[in-house]
Design brief:
By secondary structure, this protein is an alpha/beta fold. The protein has 16 helices and 15 strands. It has 2 domains: 146 residues, no CATH class; 328 residues, NAD(P)-binding Rossmann-like Domain (Rossmann fold).
């Protein structure tokens, strides 16, 4: 067990390492003093040694208050990593390690900010832990201070009967990181949550989602993360969730171009105002934000040219959806520059994979075929999209969260350019249909011609590369997923097609 103490005599404080049972931080031991033989990723070891370095340095130099807080964060992280190391090697020590993480304590006179932070942190935990049933009403009832009333008809406000049982997965404060994932019941957000839980057991996740028509709660079945039904446009909900977290990953948005042509207003509300509410909260609580955006902010490219979007391409959005996403990016940059918010942005190309709503191109065509209907191609099908598997997108998001430079934008793409006609041909082939077994329907108004991403900055600076670059293989897997998960998509299929039929029937 590790305990970190700072002298209560105000700044400059002293950092001590109280190590009653261990030999040193790098050699974790059981409570009885027996040595643990951790399976050690080299990185964790390096971090562990950094604790001793920091302590020695602090003793030599003393620290000014801000530095103390920064060092505290580093120490907490390093100790958390050692405890993670212990857990990897000796899972039965889980409760002991968890207790140790919670006992990491900082005491400092003069500036009581750390204690205030810790109390706020605990309060946040209490709110979440007590929420066996969660919706925004309960969250607000629990909150201190003024209640902020959501606008009538705001997303997520209309269904008071909605209830969610929550469970926690292992991890928590002190172990590594607590993130708030907005829009986590949507396509990319749900895949992000699932992948993070599967690959990073030391990350604690709180999902907040307004559960619009685009969400599917069952995408998170069996995952066991904390779930809050609420809107990112609701400042009270956002504030309550951001306060105890380390970072926010913002997937929440209205996302379908066709819908933005019918009714732009929800897009402006969630994508612009919602992002501003998040920015305000991360600014107030000094938390990290990663904002998920789209390549559509750059407008479109001509067909048949080698030109691609880069981080320097000027913004030229075409639809109300892409204009609202462009606005949100501008807000993030403004908050970074004006207020020093710790944020990054990524603009990704078209995603495909499991859990995508049947309104979108690839799932619509697959589920049409699986329902005995013909696929529907807009216009001549010549428009080009740059496809990336959703897992590759989400791995890039983690690379940016962990290694990205604050204030920077990264473009994410997997060199997956295909015309809609080519994609449809692959789907028809994967489902055993004839190549001409589809209908053409009236084109989308203002339809962007071509998107193409140059992701060399992300690859060069952060070492990311797509692991699922074989588009045809990924598409076959996606067809299989929809074939095997009819219960996930069938309930929404008829309603979606009825709306499309109204739009696509020539008058
Ligand atoms: P999606 O429509 O499948 O999911 C969006 C989720 O956000 C839904 O669960 C919805 O309920 C939730 N949401 C909507 N309004 C909300 C609000 N006010 N408060 C809280 N939650 C709200 O979208 P997606 O395809 O998963 O896209 C996620 C993000 O990625 C979006 O920001 C989108 O612009 C971006 N993006 C998507 C793609 C793509 O190909 N799908 C590509 C690049 C970027
Ligand atoms: O580029 C990233 C963007 O990709 C994201 O920001 C958006 O949120 C996401 O929806 C997606 O936008 P698109 O408009 O490119 O995706 P969509 O799936 O709606 O359409 C893909 C292409 O397929 C587009 O050229 C229109 C065409 N299409 C679409 C549908 C639904 C058809 O030909 N037939 C269809 O039935």
């Amino acid at each position: 067990m590790f305990r970190l103490l700072l002298e209560p005599d105000g700044a400059p404080g002293t950092v001590e390492l109280d190590d009653p049972v261990g030999t040193r931080v790098g050699d974790p031991v059981r409570e009885d003093g027996a040595a643990v033989d951790p399976v050690e990723p080299a990185q964790l070891r390096a971090q562990a040694r950094a604790v001793e370095d920091v302590v020695a340095q602090d003793e030599r130099d003393g620290l000014v208050p801000d530095e103390v807080r920064a060092e505290h964060e580093r120490l907490r992280e390093a100790v958390g990593l050692v405890l993670h190391d212990v857990l990897q090697a000796e899972p039965e020590l889980g409760p002991v390690a968890q207790q140790a993480a919670e006992l990491i304590d900082v005491r400092r006179g003069g500036d009581d900010q750390d204690l205030a932070d810790a109390r706020e942190h605990q309060r946040g935990q209490r709110v979440v832990d007590h929420r066996l049933v969660v919706d925004r009403e309960e969250l607000l009832t629990d909150a201190d201070g003024d209640r902020v009333q959501p606008a009538p008809g705001a997303p997520g406000q209309d269904d008071p009967s909605h209830r969610h049982t929550i469970t926690s997965h292992p991890g928590g404060y002190g172990m590594h990181m607590h993130i708030v994932v907005t829009g986590g019941a949507g396509f990319i957000g749900a895949n992000f949550v699932r992948r993070t839980v599967a690959t990073r057991p030391d990350v604690r996740i709180t999902v907040v989602d307004a559960l619009t028509y685009a969400a599917n709660e069952s995408s998170l079945d069996g995952v066991g993360v904390e779930f809050v039904k609420g809107s990112i446009t609701d400042p009270a909900v956002v504030d309550e969730l951001v306060a105890p977290a380390d970072a926010v990953v913002n997937f929440a948005a209205d996302t379908h171009n066709d819908n933005s042509l019918t009714d732009p207003w929800p897009f402006l509300d969630t994508n612009i105002r919602g992002t501003a509410v998040l920015l305000d909260a991360v600014r107030r609580h000094e938390k990290r934000l990663h904002h998920i955006s789209t390549d559509e902010v750059f407008g479109d490219l001509p067909l048949g040219t080698p030109e691609r979007f880069t981080e320097e391409t000027p913004y030229r959005p075409s639809s109300p959806y892409s204009a609202s996403k462009a606005s949100s990016d501008h807000l993030v940059r403004a908050w970074v520059r004006s207020f020093g918010v710790q944020a990054t942005i990524s603009n990704c190309s078209n995603n495909y994979g499991p859990y995508q709503h049947v309104e979108k191109f690839i799932p619509r065509q697959i589920t049409n075929i699986l329902s005995g209907e013909r696929p529907k191609l807009y216009g001549a099908g010549a428009n080009v999209r740059d496809w990336i598997h959703v897992d590759d997108h989400n791995d890039a998001v983690w690379a940016i969260l962990e290694r990205g430079t604050i204030g920077e934008t990264y473009l994410i793409g997997a060199d997956g350019e295909r015309s809609n006609r080519e994609v449809l041909a692959l789907i028809l082939e994967a489902t055993g249909r004839a190549p001409d077994d589809f209908d053409t329907v009236p084109d989308r108004a203002g339809h962007d011609l071509r998107y193409a991403i140059d992701s060399s900055k992300l690859r060069r600076e952060l070492g990311w590369a797509p692991a699922r670059a074989d588009f045809a293989a990924g598409l076959r897997d996606t067809v299989d997923w929809y074939r095997e998960n009819r219960a996930w998509w069938e309930p929404g299929k008829a309603g979606t097609e009825a709306a499309y039929a109204r739009r696509e029937t020539p008058r």
